Amino acid sequence: MLKPIREWTARDVLRLRPLTHRYKAARSALVDRRFLAKAGDVAEVAALRAAVAGKNAAITMAFQDAEVIDWQIRLVRKYLPPLVHVIVDNSPGDGEAAAIRAAAVRNDCPYLRLPPNPWTGVHASRSHGQAMNWVWRHVLKPAGPAAFGFLDHDIFPTAPDDPFGALAGLPFHGDIRDRQGGGEGWYLWAGYSFFDFAQVQGKALDFGPHWLVGLDTGGGNWMPLYRHVDRARLPVRPVRDLQAFDDVSQREAYYGWHGSWLHEVGIGGGRAFQGRKRAMTASLLAAHLGDS
Asked: How far does Cα 141 stand from its chain's mean position?
């Protein structure tokens, strides 16, 4: 998606930014097409299509963290109505992928490892978005689920909820995010977004980001999908920050409550702090995991 002509300034034109913008977009699109053309494991893809056909399917995009996958599977099964919960693994390392597969198998959850992603380690948002696009092209669109949703691996329901029920009469819903820097455009956060298949199957969906115009992962759907729907029709769940540590800034130790879902928001910093934050997440979820 290229920036609208009206948004270019005279300074942009003098610096040839319209040309460099177009070049970068074309270069990225070529890499994307090559990745999306990869077939993946034929037997696993066929099994996954059969599992989600005609059903409500929640797709968790996994990445190098088996522990959160185990927690999320158990909590989705505990708090959400019956659905097909699929783990799609975008991890580059064989060891991490094996651990995630084991967590999925242990919890009787369908698993699929993606082909090597060219954006991993280069551009995290594009790696995530193209992984979602791969799932759409190779699994969801051919299979035809009743509805489908994408989840980040580090978001956990902590109370009964029905994200598919909220789709009644709507083509999609989720957590809305606005274009960075202002201007026209908004999108659904990739970590919690749900779609009615019948209403979106004919659209040229693109779950990738469009950083050049200020839209993160999922922003590629602004042109083919989101701009045609009045966002005022979409349900809005409260999103609030959680300051989990008294001695660490929120920026470093961020958690978010999305309605009744806890979002760990990744783990940064040194190894000691990573362990401390993960222990905090375990503590916050302990009462919910105890009988799951």
From this structure: 17
3-state secondary structure of 210: strand
Task: Give the start-to-end residue ranges of the domains of the chain.
Answer: 23-233, 239-289
What is the spatial distance between Cα 253 and Cα 267, in angstroms, rounded to a whole number? 8
Helix, coil or strand: residue 238: coil
Give me the torsion for CA of 52, 53, 56, 57, rounded to 10°.
Answer: 30
- Predicted confidence pLDDT, tens digits, the chain (292 residues): 555 656 667 776 666 565 666 656 666 778 889 999 999 899 999 999 999 999 999 999 999 999 999 999 999 999 999 999 999 999 999 999 999 999 999 999 999 999 999 999 988 999 999 999 999 999 999 999 999 999 999 999 999 999 999 999 999 999 999 987 777 789 999 999 999 999 999 999 999 998 667 789 999 999 999 999 999 999 999 999 998 888 887 677 889 999 999 999 877 777 788 899 999 999 999 999 998 7
Q: 23-233 has which fold? A: Spore Coat Polysaccharide Biosynthesis Protein SpsA; Chain A (3.90.550)
Note whether 156 and 286 are within 8 A (CB).
no
Q: What is the pTM of this model?
A: 0.89
Contacts 24+ apart (CB under 8 A), 242-249: 244/277, 244/280, 244/284, 245/276, 245/280, 248/273
* Residue 159 tokens, joined: 């109370």
Contacts 24+ apart (CB under 8 A), 195-201: 195/147, 195/148, 195/149, 195/167, 195/171, 196/147, 196/167, 196/170, 196/171, 196/172, 197/140, 197/144, 197/145, 197/146, 197/147, 197/148, 199/171, 199/172, 200/171, 200/172, 200/225, 201/141, 201/144
